[in-house]
Amino acid sequence: MLKGLFYIFLGIILACSCDSKSKKQDGQEVNTPTSVNDSNAIAKIEFPQKSFNFGDLQEGEIVTHTFRFKNTGTKSLVILNVEASCGCTTPKYDKKPIPPGGEGKIEVEFNSSGRYGKQYKVINIFANVPEKVIELKIIANIKNK
Questions:
Q1: 41: CB partners within 8 A, 6+ apart
Q2: What pLDDT is attached to residue 35?
Q3: Measured between alpha carbons, how far is 13 from 21 in angstroms, rounded to an integer?
Q4: Cα–Cα distance between 50 and 53 in angstroms, integer?
Q5: Where are the beta strands (DSSP E) in the chain?
Q6: Which residues contact 3 (CB under 8 A, 6 or more apart)?
Q7: 31-80, pLDDT tens digit by residue?
Q8: Which fold has domain 49-143?
């Protein structure tokens, strides 16, 4: 009786320990994730452009730029927060998870009121990616009216 329970328990443990499927590729076994929650799955965010220069602006102009990105990882990308280095810069983003291969955007509005000369503003993106924080930059040169 005790021996039978041992084998049942052992069978349950062995069945639960298999969390990935293996398949043959080029004659070798390769483990593949069974879900996006697999420990090997990660989200990756890729921006074709991480900075944008608005060029010369008149003081008081409000301008926007859209930074586009793609999730090149194997897990859904979740943007946790987006923060600007200044109150004159307002980022807007979609809070829904972006699946692997999916695309998204972050729209940044810059208000040049009360600003003069060369302006460098940083937008920090906090997400579930290995880097933890991704930095975007906007630049503008504000002229007097």
A1: 33, 35, 73, 74, 75
A2: 42
A3: 17
A4: 11
A5: 20-25, 28-33, 45-46, 51-58, 62-71, 79-84, 89-93, 103-111, 117-127, 133-143
A6: none
A7: 444 444 456 899 999 999 999 999 999 999 999 999 999 999 999 999 99
A8: Immunoglobulin-like (2.60.40)
